[in-house]
Amino acid sequence: MNRMIRSGTLIALLPIAACLLISCSRGGKTPVLKASDLPVTAGPYRLERIYENTWAITETSPLETVTCYLLAGEKRALLFDTGLGTGDIRAAAAQLTALPVIVLNSHSHYDHIGGNYLFAEILGPDLPETVRSARGLGHEAFVSFYRDAYMMDPDSTASSFVIRPYRITRRIHDGDRIDLGGRSLEIIFTPGHSADDLCLLDRENGVVFSGDIFYEGALFAHLAESDPEAYRKTALILERLAGEFRYVCPAHSRPMAPASRLAEVRRLFNRIDAGTAAVRDIGNRLLYSSDSLKIVLNKSR
Q1: For the structural domain made of 3-298, what CATH number should be given?
Q2: Is the pTM of this model over 0.70?
């Protein structure tokens, strides 16, 4: 989540021409997008196939642009995040697969859980933040969170925005595997941006789904629930994943990028600690930058 920089020139969805060239499989399989795989619009969602049995569902609103991912196996599918909830993401997913869909959130911020209430089966960690978010988010609480995050009020179109309550039906843990039938996905906890951040690993295809712990732009480590020290430890995990995987699919910015970019998070933290990162004062926060990555920290970190 990062409206501060996503609304500007740093943010661009993956160009269609580039989409057509992407291949994300190992073991000799090389799926290539066909003309029928070009992005289509369904309500507030942009649907596009990014590799075999895997789709990006991008929801755009004045509040956020967030990308959720639908991964299908032989028996069921998993939806990684449900966006803001401005539309019916369950109906959008049904256009892509007829399989039953389970939900897993990268973390429980409002722009990732808005459509959870539409689903009967939701996975989540047994963490206070996750449990609290499942109770829903009233409008006043949303505005308070948004104001703290972005140092501005939300767009007037969000005058009645709320997150509806939902029920987590199965608790997950670090290292758990999810069997979709002929397709196994791995969960790895990566706190820092929030306390319940996690990544989803598709090892067979060499893809990491990173949520908000990495995307191209300014990473948020200044929120009330952010933990810069935990983020530093997570940066070591991301650096390892950068060497083991081929692509990363973040929740914001373009749907796919080289996984090697994950290593930039640790390099940026190292430069911050060494005093060599470029820094800009943005009120009571500091915006650090290195390479093409940025991170926002509180001054009293």
Answers
A1: 3.60.15.10
A2: yes
